[in-house]
């Protein structure tokens, strides 16, 4: 849920910036237009718009307002008309739900495969010296701290391997211990002596 909100915010920000660039104080007025555009746009993952999957029909677009509206009757629909409408709605929605689930599964598998392809595979042993990525300047997966603020802390020594992805560390100078630390936060530490021996 949190990831979904972050993804929506990443989509909203550039659109808001482009619509409100002449008047930065009017961004809240543009939200209704942007929300309508996002709800009526087909999703890459499901091939359907959120509005269609919710209501079983496409909302009227501004162009539709130029066309003649269908006749409106004050009479309530009969039970037969409601039954026909319900059947037509189910005939439209059920295949859409099925295809949306299948496409979502394919999309999730593709995203997982792309993540695994670009994921850095790291493995450390007790005694290895590492840097630890600082969390104080990170927000939503990106560095938000000062440009001059160190992004890594250390060096630390690996004391114990707690699991396949977590370790217990000890600072080489202060002897402060950190535990558990995920492998994704660790980077090998290279001293001038180590670099010279590698070269």
How would you characterize the overall build of this protein?
This is Tf2-1-like SH3-like domain-containing protein. One of its GO terms (molecular function) is nucleic acid binding. Residues 127-189 form the Tf2-1-like SH3-like domain. It holds the Pfam family SH3_Tf2-1. InterPro entries: Retrovirus_Pol_polyprotein (IPR050951), RNaseH-like_sf (IPR012337), RNaseH_sf (IPR036397), SH3_Tf2-1 (IPR056924). With 199 residues, this protein is of the alpha+beta class. It folds into 2 domains: 2-61 and 88-118, no CATH class; 129-198, Roll (SH3 type barrels), CATH 2.30.30. Helices cover 43% and strands 17% of the residues. The protein is built from 5 helices and 7 strands. It has helices at residues 2-19, 27-40, 50-55, 79-118, 192-198, and strands at 129-133, 138-139, 142-143, 152-161, 166-171, 177-182, 186-188. Strands 6-5-4-1-7 form a 5-stranded antiparallel β-sheet, with no helix packed on it. A two-stranded antiparallel ribbon has the order 2-3. A hairpin with a 5-residue loop joins strand 5 and strand 6 (177-182). Helix 1 packs across helix 2. The longest helix has 40 residues, at 79-118. Residues 195-199 have low confidence and may be disordered.
């Amino acid at each position: 849920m949190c990831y979904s909100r972050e993804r929506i915010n990443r989509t909203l920000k550039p659109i808001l910036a482009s619509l409100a660039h002449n008047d930065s104080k009017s961004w809240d007025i543009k939200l209704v237009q942007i929300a309508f555009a996002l709800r009526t746009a087909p999703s890459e993952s499901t091939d359907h718009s959120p509005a269609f999957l919710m209501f079983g029909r496409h909302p009227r677009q501004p162009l539709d307002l130029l066309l003649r509206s269908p006749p409106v009757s004050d009479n309530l629909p009969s039970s037969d008309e409601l039954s026909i409408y319900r059947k037509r709605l189910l005939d439209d929605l059920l295949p859409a739900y099925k295809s949306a689930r299948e496409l979502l599964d394919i999309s999730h598998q593709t995203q997982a495969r792309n993540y695994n392809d670009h994921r850095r595979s790291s493995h450390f042993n007790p005694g290895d010296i590492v840097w630890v990525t600082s969390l104080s300047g990170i927000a939503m997966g990106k560095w938000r701290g000062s440009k001059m603020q160190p992004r890594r802390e250390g060096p630390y020594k690996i004391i114990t391997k707690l699991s396949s992805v977590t370790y217990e560390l000890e600072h080489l100078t202060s002897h402060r211990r950190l535990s558990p630390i995920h492998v994704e936060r660790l980077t090998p530490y290279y001293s001038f002596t180590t670099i010279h021996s590698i070269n």
